[in-house]
Write a structure and sequence with these properties.
Blueprint lengths: L1 E4 L5 H9 L3 E4 L8 H8 L4 E4 L7 H6 L5 E4 L9 H6 L4 E2 L6 H16 L2 H9 L11
Parallel strand pairs: 1-2, 1-3, 3-4, 4-5
Length: about 140
């Protein structure tokens, strides 16, 4: 199966797909493809792994009705119209809890940084505005 990925795919995931005999092409441009560009690109592929928030609408699903699957590397599918995927018999998968741990870790980090005034204290050190006798906090 030929798969188009609209962004960088993790090395392990890429190797797993290739091991199963799939050909994966990655679109690694810094600019996000428009819906029209994505329609043109998908003509030669059997599946799409979307790592961007390019809108997948009625026009996309009708023009790409040959796709066997669309996978979203996001925790939601707000930028697609799933009813058109269903009408064209294209299954859509997404990663609803893929970033939960990262969000929780970042939240705790920001809470600790805020409570200890880490950014303000770091800036004091950088700009040489601290003394050895004064407590930073």
């Amino acid at each position: 199966m030929k798969i188009l990925c609209t962004g960088p795919l993790a090395t392990l995931g890429l190797k797993m797909l290739e091991k199963e005999g799939h050909q994966v092409d990655q679109h690694l441009s810094k600019s996000m493809l428009t819906t029209e560009q994505l329609i043109i690109c998908c003509k030669d592929y059997d599946a799409l792994i979307s790592a961007t928030i390019t809108p997948l609408n009625k026009a996309f699903f009708e023009a790409c009705s040959h796709l066997k699957a669309v996978i979203l590397l996001q925790p939601s599918f707000d930028h697609i119209q799933p009813k058109w995927a269903t009408k064209n018999n294209i299954p859509v998968g997404y990663t609803p809890s893929g970033i939960n741990q990262a969000v929780a870790e970042t939240t705790l980090m920001l809470m600790i940084a805020s409570s200890r005034q880490i950014i303000a204290q770091h800036n004091r050190i950088i700009f040489n505005q601290w003394s050895k006798t004064e407590h930073l906090i």
